[in-house]
Amino acid sequence: KTPLWLDCDPGHDDVFAILFAAYHPGINLLGISTVFGNAPLETTTVNAASILTSIGKHNDIPIYAGASQAIARPPMNPPTSIHGKTGLDGTDLLPQPKRDPKWTESATAAMAAALLAQPADTAVVVATGPLTNIAILFRDYPQLAGHVKCLSLMGAAFGGGFTDVSLGTVDDPNRIGNYTRWAEFNIVADPEAAAQIFSDNIIAAKTTVIPLDLTHQVLATERVRDLLLYGKSGQRNGKAKTTLRQMLVELLMYFADTYADVFGITVGPPLHDPIAVAAALIGTPWEISFHDSDDQGSKQSERFSVTVETKGSYKDAVEGKTMTGMTMQIPLEPGSDGVTIPRSLDFSHFWTVLEDCIEMADEK
Ligand code: BDR
Ligand code: CA
What we know:
glycosidase, 13% strand, Inosine/uridine_hydrolase_dom, 14 helices, purine nucleosidase activity, 10 strands, binds beta-D-ribofuranose, Ribo_hydro-like, IUNH, six-stranded parallel β-sheet, two-stranded antiparallel sheet
């Protein structure tokens, strides 16, 4: 099993990252840390605890509250137009947490201890929120960069995420990012943290970036939502197979509505975050096939250097906002030290595996 630490900011799609990491038979989920992002830290932390309770894993997996604001910036406004005020709007089925998160112990100390207790080159870090905790972790525990096997993160946008007309009436074909026209949320929420990670050659060489360009292809369409609601062989009779499935699909429906309202993407919400967990299994027997732009299957030979705009020197001509958090990908020679950026994956395999994880959670 791949030992894995998940850093997240739940958030509708983070819920599915937690579920995938907690139930995938190829993953040993060591712990969860939370970060500000889709809602303030207190809220994302209670949300994570509620989700673990809903899937019956509260006694098995510890949760540590991490950073409440970016390394070098004041607290930000959460994206309430996407995730609502609670970060998980859209369902009344979330349970009260049955176990308290760890509020006062250091999240990064706990992460470091858990990761360093694993044999070298085995443990994986997955980040599905702003990169603050991850940047602090690698800054304060420099020995970790050489020790971990990989860092898989959902973040960044390079263009392409909003241009596919099959998504619906996309509001602005020149749009690249989701928080601003140029920047993806997890990066713009702490651009200095992201810049620190991408500019460290040792870490970058182990990093897989799952950008909006890819996650906007992973759409929880009505067909997918039916699969998750009724199960593989369940009857499509309007009645969810279990309360857990009902809750998950209510969350997806809310996310679908906000994505349609805000971006005009009408076929279903992109399920960003669990893709970063799935990518952590590349190279293991549980691999879901991810593809480079040259379509060479999971060989993943393309390498990139990623830059993050942190200075706020440029303003967008349409919205007048600064382009802080904008990311650029610079191709490197294959085999160089640089990040991997998959361009597509085996979508139907991914949905089947996610549904398997729900089935296992149902049985718990
Ligand atoms: C990312 O931002 C958040 O809203 C989602 O949870 C995801 O991690 C997508 O840009
Ligand atoms: Ca997230």
